[in-house]
Amino acid sequence: MIVDGDEVGNDIDEHFDAVVIGSGAGGAVVAKELAEGGMRVAIIEDGAYHKLSSHTDLPYEALGRLYRDKGFTTTLGKPAIPIPMGRALGGTTVINSGTCFRTPKSVLAHWNNDLDLKSLTEESFSAIFDRVEKEINVSEADFSVMSRANTIFHEILTKKGVAGHPLKRNIRGCEGCGFCCYGCPTGAKQSMDVSYLPKAFIHGAKAYVNCTFEQFIIENNRVTGIQANFHRYAGANNGHTLRIKAPRVIMAAGTFHTPQLLRDCGVAVENRNLGRNLTLHPATKVFARFDEEIRGWEGTPQAYYSEVLKDQGITLEGIFVPPDIAAMTVPFVGRRLNEFMREYKHMATFGFLISDSSSGRVMKLPLLGTTVLYNLNKADVEKFRKGVAYLARVFLEGGATKVYTLLHGYPEFSTLADVERLENGPLKAEDIDCMAFHPLGSCRMGSTAETGVVGDDFRVYGWEGLYICDGSVIPSPLGVNPQVTIMAFATRLAYQMLGKRLTQ
Ligand SMILES: Cc1cc2nc3c(=O)[nH]c(=O)nc-3n(C[C@H](O)[C@H](O)[C@H](O)COP(=O)(O)OP(=O)(O)OC[C@H]3O[C@@H](n4cnc5c(N)ncnc54)[C@H](O)[C@@H]3O)c2cc1C
Ligand code: SF4
């Protein structure tokens, strides 16, 4: 059942077994598993519920409806990095690309051996991954519906003898319309609003949308409930409040918001990890012009990948941005922008994300409010140099007439000698135009309160009744897209709360 703050005309007081703040990859999964396990569950979501039929075919319009701050959230630092995130029932999964990776074994081993998180073993996750993948129907992308930007890259890699593979995605009957990041109009993408949440509702969960968490109800060091404000769809407070008493409060508002909400409520403020250890998986792409018409916006934009640079902390993944969004985000203006966009149908793109060793901080600054501070360190700058140079070489060797990069000082390459200039030339953090889609770690899990905000039982150190279960608890960067890891953590928390074990 969904209660919409846009329509609520009175204050509401309720009791539940568990209340979950946020309905994305973390919140929706823990809510559904708890509801299915017999608990009475409430979900509080700041964003609205958008029916499939309401998804627009204008990407620019979707930014206003489904993205927080119309997609203009960004970091402060060198370079400034846009971090888009979702604000809707289903969270960022509504606007993500649908790529699915299990947590890499090397990362699990790192948590287990180096971070002393002894319970996070590969064996303990195996049945959990199976369950998550079944719920969201993880299956391999089909070449027949991939964007040409992906298949041309595949053809070139194959000729070079380099391995690449179709990505695994959470899809059921993907038609390749290319709108994954603007709300899948067919329901093929198994985002939380079409997979986990409907099941949560069948099992009696109640979601309050257009409803913003504001405060915990606290008795000594125990959180016993929450208070939230209803608001109109357009954003104005409607003057009515929601008060829920529950013995379990689970924060899943995302890596950006969870630490700041805790801080605003005066909770865990003494823990020096709160808001720190933030990693982003910064990402960029190159454009490659071919004589052939690519029309990369037709077909699934992110459907192919290669691990050829994995050892260097770089994962290559397909990407294509529709023309109206591209025109806003490429670093060109005037006649140059005009020329670039006229050629856009001939452009292929391919991108990569880096496993970052840089780390940042979520904090509140006067005048700016909640802010992310993050500087790219030298080691990560070098990953960008390697990734861009590699993609540029692949495309030029594969027949591209020109390659355009998002690195200042190296705007376009026509020959391999141009690529060598990048390989040997100066490059600073502020020269890199990148984005980030995977903020993680700002309330990371640690084996003690000295190293983390939550323990491996997801409970906030020093507090009873309060748990965190979203991207913020992931203990280190993954080097791959994180939604399946976050969903696996959420499943783990739910089973722990239900006192059950998932076995194969
Ligand atoms: C464009 C894009 C593409 C991506 N593609 C992929 C991909 O292909 N594969 C992948 O694995 N990952 C991808 N990601 C990342 C992935 O979607 C996120 O890592 C994941 O959804 C994070 O889950 P979460 O539960 O931490 O937060 P979210 O999914 O962001 O959910 C948090 C929710 O909390 C709500 N909230 C915040 N504050 C409050 C408040 N005060 N009160 C109530 N509610 C609140 C928010 O509105 C939001 O709905 C992508 C991200 C983006 C932006
Ligand atoms: S390509 Fe289209 S149908 Fe397929 S998941 Fe993306 S939005 Fe949905």
Q: What is the CATH class designation of the largest domain?
A: Alpha Beta
Taken together, the total number of domains comes to 2
Helix content: 25-40%
Count of extended strands? 23
Q: Based on the structure given, which CATH architecture of the largest domain is correct?
A: 3-Layer(bba) Sandwich
Description:
There is one protein chain. The chain folds into two domains: 2-69 and 81-96 and 101-135 and 191-277 and 442-498, FAD/NAD(P)-binding domain (3-Layer(bba) Sandwich); 142-181 and 282-354 and 377-433, Cholesterol Oxidase, domain 2, CATH 3.30.410. The chain is globular. It is α/β, with parallel strands linked by helices. The mean pLDDT is 96. The chain has helices at 25-36, 59-66, 105-113, 122-135, 148-160, 196-202, 258-264, 323-329, 334-342, 378-397, 416-424, 483-498, and strands at 2-4, 12-15, 18-21, 41-44, 75-76, 138-140, 165-166, 168-170, 206-209, 211-219, 222-231, 237-245, 248-251, 282-289, 304-306, 314-318, 347-354, 361-365, 369-373, 402-404, 412-413, 435-436, 466-468. Strands 7, 14, 15, 16, 17, 20, 21 and 22 form an eight-stranded antiparallel beta sheet that branches. It has a six-stranded parallel beta sheet with strand order 1-9-4-3-13-23, covered by helices on one side. A hairpin with a 5-residue loop joins β11 and β12 (237-245). α4 (122-135) crosses α12. Flavin-adenine dinucleotide (FAD) is lined by residues 21-27, 44-47, 84-88, 91-93, 95-99, 181, 212-213, 252-255, 257, 261, 302, 437-438, 470-471, 481-483, 486.
